[in-house]
Amino acid sequence: MLYYLLKYLDGMFDFPGSALYQFITFRSGMAFILSLLVSTLFGKKIINYLRRQQIGETVRELGLEGQNEKAGTPTMGGIIIIMATLIPVLLLARLENIYVLVLILTTIWMGVIGFLDDYIKVFKKDKEGLKGKFKVVGQIGLGVIVGAIFYFHPNITVRDTPSILLETGVTSKFDIKSTTTTIPFFKDNEFNYGQLISWMGDGYENYIWLIFIPIVIFIVTAVSNGANLTDGIDGLAAGTSAITVVALGIFAFVSGNFVFANYLNIMYIPNSGEMTVFIAAFVGALVGFLWYNAFPAQVFMGDTGSLTIGGVIAVLAIAVRKEMLIPVLCGIFLAENLSVVMQVAYFKYTKRKYGEGRRILLMSPLHHHYQKKGYHESKIVTRFWIVGIFLAIFCVVSLKLR
């Protein structure tokens, strides 16, 4: 809203400084600062309110050191992240931008699913929370909506490459609807999902959505569940997610800027640069939340936060056509997911074969394994952050590593 006010002041009165609204970098910086202030200044009030309402975490007995001390810690802290993200975005972003609208929808949609899960756990005293099938239905629903928007909306395009710089210096535009994505680490690294059904022959282009939307559903579901599993010890999910989102912010900025995209020889995605404002606000919200969530945590994000984080990361990766980088960029989420899948699968296999279930890890998800080995929470979190930073930098370097 401030964006439109500044635009009006600049157009009508040439108000000093109002032209700054034109620069994504300025609005992104302001969004980060504002979200950081909102999350830190209002976070304490929200935590106190949650504590007064006795919205505390019910801790299951897992035999972990320091576990009992966490009982009663306020949960649903994801509300802080959502609020601190949406306020700056509504004030500073261009709200007619389709990418921004999709990210706002994702934040609210996944936030509601997570809130329902936390509400059932806290007020209905049901430790299982929202039944898994309902969570999956919600994730699938978001995947269908996001996939349909990305496929059908006329303003979601890519610039046909290479763009031709004419002798006059005017750039010819070839903005096209496409399901093209990026294959990391390879030269001429573009892949169109339509190739998966090209065997259908003439007219297959009309059915690409049948493969594209299920892929979006899978990515949204997998990443949101990965973030959910990572949220197990103080500061882990918020910190690793902030690192991941910063990398996606770099991708969004360079992909949405013709000069940088042309220099890096990467896909230019018109209008995608505006996502940088949302990303800056989201990172600020995560960092501000860490103020209270770092060990020893004064608040937990709950599913309200973790599902929202995962959904936003998934949609961002799809929007900047970097979803094939997710296994590397979200390596922490992947490791946490795989640790649970492998643990459960091996336990069931050995129970059938030997009559007694055996385990690969001392406990899953992976961070609990290290807790069982005697590592302190802070050490585990810090080392996971270091791994996350390494993976994020490696992914950013991949822009030229081809």
Describe the structure in your own words.
It is a multi-pass membrane protein. GO terms for molecular function: metal ion binding; phospho-N-acetylmuramoyl-pentapeptide-transferase activity; UDP-N-acetylmuramoyl-L-alanyl-D-glutamyl-meso-2,6-diaminopimelyl-D-alanyl-D-alanine:undecaprenyl-phosphate transferase activity. Keywords: Cell cycle, Cell division, Cell membrane, Cell shape, Cell wall biogenesis/degradation, Magnesium, Membrane, Metal-binding, Peptidoglycan synthesis, Transferase, Transmembrane, Transmembrane helix. Its cofactor is Mg(2+). The protein is mainly alpha-helical and 402 residues long. The protein has one domain (1-325). The chain is built from 15 helices and four strands. The protein has helices at residues 2-13, 24-41, 43-52, 78-92, 98-123, 132-152, 209-230, 236-255, 258-264, 275-293, 302-319, 326-329, 331-354, 366-372, 377-397; strands at 158-159, 175-176, 180-182, 190-192. Helix 4 packs antiparallel against helix 5 and helix 7 packs antiparallel against helix 11. The longest helix is centred in the N-terminal third of the chain and has 26 residues, at 98-123. Residues 161-172 have low confidence and may be disordered.
